[in-house]
Write a structure and sequence with these properties.
It is a single chain. This protein is mostly beta strands. The protein contains three helices and nine strands; from the N terminus they run ββββββαβββαα. The chain has a single domain, classed as Hypothetical Protein Pfu-838710-001. Strand 7 and strand 8 form a beta hairpin.
Length: 151
């Protein structure tokens, strides 16, 4: 189960590049249901996600590099590339902000996600002041939707 809130970022914290990050490339084989292949640094995954906005079923299966390279060629739409910075949430070190800085077709787009253990914690979350608009419930900035947008 994935429980997360998502925010549009217009001004990231000054020191965000000092935090660890992952280089991510991903493509979508299907958007309904969501079936994604992802390269994260030197790891490869096939992911299934159910419908939903804040709460969704999510299953990750490991892939070999060869399987990933074969499947990414079959992806529909945009291949998304981004750096994902892992920033501990000040005052709550059990939560991590995943700050996505998009590259390629969506260069300039910045989104922050925070994953939670339960819906109650997600619903009561107070974001840091540098977070922008809460886009959790719009679906507009889901990566599967971005993959289908004309840019």
């Amino acid at each position: 189960m994935e429980i997360e809130r998502k925010y549009l970022i217009t001004s990231p914290p000054e020191n965000y590049t000092s935090y660890p990050f992952h280089q991510i490339e991903q493509g979508y084989l299907s958007t309904s249901p969501v079936v994604r292949v992802r390269k994260e640094d030197d790891s490869y995954y096939l992911t299934y996600k159910s419908k939903g906005l804040m709460v969704r079923e999510e299953y990750n299966l490991p892939l070999t590099r060869e399987s990933y390279e074969h499947l990414i060629q079959k992806a529909d739409g945009n291949i998304l590339t981004k750096k994902r910075y892992l920033i501990p949430l000040e005052g709550n070190l059990s939560l991590t902000i995943e700050l996505d800085i998009f590259e390629g077709a969506f260069e300039g787009l910045m989104l922050a996600e925070v994953e939670f253990e339960n819906e109650q914690d997600a619903a009561s979350f107070l974001p840091p002041v540098w977070f922008g608009k809460d886009v959790t419930f719009s679906g507009e900035y889901q990566n599967s939707r971005l993959s289908q947008m004309k840019r």
